[in-house]
Amino acid sequence: MTVNMTKVGRRGLLFSFDELNKAPYYCTTNVFILMGHKRYYVCDTYLGAYYMTPILTYLESHYGKKDYVIFNSHSHWDHIWGNSLFHNHLIVSHEKCRAFIQLEGEEEMKAHADSYAKEQVEIVLPNVTFSHSMVFEDDEVEFFYSPGHSEDSSSCYDRQEKILFVGDNVEAPLPSLSWHDMEQYILTLQHYLEMDAKHIVISHGPVINRSLIRDNIAYLCNLKRHNKLTFSDNDIMQKHHDNLNFLNHGN
User: Fold this and answer.
1) Distance of alpha carbon 1 from alpha carbon 3, whole angstroms
2) Would you give the DSSP letter of residue 77?
3) Quick one: angle between helices 210-224 and 182-194, nearest 10?
4) Which of 62, 158, 179, 180 is the most exposed place for a label (fewest CB within 10 A)?
5) In what order do the strands lie in the sheet with 39-43?
6) What stretch of H or E contains 92?
């Protein structure tokens, strides 16, 4: 297991893993932690307890024991398997995210566990859900619905440090589609640009600035208008073809 840690602002920690940085995904994957006064806010739980346990050990040895609030940004398998480590803590998500995990979590686990699980995977559902937003006022941490990459996507905003965690809604070099409503996706990204965020954290890659959000919007606008796009990089072109294939044939 290879993991790198990056400090984000005064109370954010970004843990980046390499297990998916190979075919067919070619991406690092992040677990983002906000250190509140009373709680650790854990944004996504990656591929299971095997990967999450060292993070908890690091947090508690360096910053002490606190309650944990787990946030699932969306239902996809590479973001939720570590929920099993947090049975006795709050696991928060949008209501659609919980419904999708309940509907698809076991099937996705069976499809990917042989390749990516280090131990037996147990699908654990969020035990607290919201429809629009949920705020922990004492720590100035907000979770809010932000559909885009998927219909069930949500984001996390640290009002104190102005750190915005956007999950898979922003990606480099192109966004990845798993939902057909590009108009709503664009609205979500435009909302990000309107927010007073100093640091923007994504699930797959380093901390970004607003230029990548603008690039993602431009790409989605071209898709929406059915403009023909070409890219000199073969990997980027393949990702574009994957998006087109989803729009034409995806569910």
Assistant:
1) 7
2) G
3) 160
4) 62
5) 3-8, 12-17, 29-35, 39-43, 67-71, 90-94, 128-130
6) strand 90-94
Q: How is residue 81 written in tokens?
A: 């398997």
CB-based contact 148:188 (threshold 8 Å): yes
Sheet with 154-158: strands ordered across: 133-136, 141-145, 154-158, 163-165, 199-201
**Phi and psi torsions of 31, nearest 5°:** -115, 125
CA–CA separation, 166 and 148 (whole Å): 10
User: Residue 223's closest CA among 189, 186, 188?
Assistant: 186
pLDDT tens by residue, 52-105: 999 999 999 999 999 999 999 999 999 999 999 999 999 999 999 999 999 999
CATH 1.10.3720.10 for the 3-220 domain, yes or no? no
